[in-house]
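Please check this today:
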Amino acid sequence: MTSVSRRVTVVMIVVAVALGLGAPAFGAPGGAADAVPATVAAPAGSVLDLGTLGGDSARAVAVNRHGQVVGASTTVDGDTHVFLWSRRVGMRDLGPGEAVDVNDCGEVLIRLDYPVFPHLFLWRPGHGRLVVGPAEGRYTTGGDLNDRGAVVGSTYMPDGSTMAWLRTPRGTLHNLGDLGGTTSTAVRVNNRGQVAGTSLTAGGHERPYLWESRTGMVSLGDLPEVGLGMLSGRGPAVADLTEDGVVVGNAGSGMYRWSQARGLEEIGCLGGMTCEVADINRHGWIAGGWQDPEMDIDAAFVWDRRRGLHVLTTGTEGFFAHAAYAMAVNDRGQVLGEMLSSNPALNGAFVWDPRSGVHVLPASGDGAQPVTITAAGQALVNIPVSGASWDTTRAVLWTPPVRRGA
């Protein structure tokens, strides 16, 4: 086990936002399900409301490299259906359930209570839905989909065990096994067919693993329990898996990174503080949240091997962002996250760009739910509807005004 200690650089970012100007409204429900909403001009770039399936709420969960977005929306009857949105077609109704993911072929992974407990379905263009996962399973959790149509999930079995599995694009189902215990979970699958997740050992300790057809399930090593937030007290958690087979996740109060070349590396946070991983890009940049329990401050961070941990602390005269979290980082190094500050005008979703700093989505508010940021720099965000219940949202694509010369 290699312990990696990195210098921490606190980056103070000046936020430039045009205050007092008009901002897009997200209050009125969309029109017909197949209508293509118009782009709304805003001081901070352009915001595109994806509309709904006739109801008052839509929540996005993923977008592929062709710009197809999936999520769940209420219908005119108040039911919740899966949607697949594209600029050419608009919002398409894929039937009951909730979307989990979409790949670059336009295949959609769906979770549905069927007949009572949740199971996973794969929707394929021109073919409709098919059930994936072990038929004898009681219910399935998690789920991930790669661009070749392989699906992973975790299913609670009749004997009380939890089985991690992989369904190949040809429909073959593989039990991924375990590390000696009775519980295994599959979290991510990449386009090489490698799977990352966690499994219990015979002694009851949770360990992260990497599975591939050649080697089977291989433990990535012994790591401390997670000591942060909702994951506190649990074994090490897997956050993401790259196309190169790099696994990142949370352990103890810090993070870990595993690769074939370097093995297991623990990445510490600041003394007495904790870090939680959300995403990693193909250059190895890790994004997530940093927490100081004593000062009651959360902040977004980016880590890379050359420069170490950068806490994205936003500050201008008269306000300080006391809560921030990074949800995603793309291959340009642009980071999507959410922040709260003493200045309400700066609450909501933000994009941090290495060249031009922070851009805040106007009127997104402290209930904004950042989802991901595309390779082109478009941010997918769920925005609360003003005056409605807390769970009423609209899905938007936001293009920040990134200035390349800045």
Summary: Confidence is low (pLDDT under 50) at residues 1-43, 314-320.
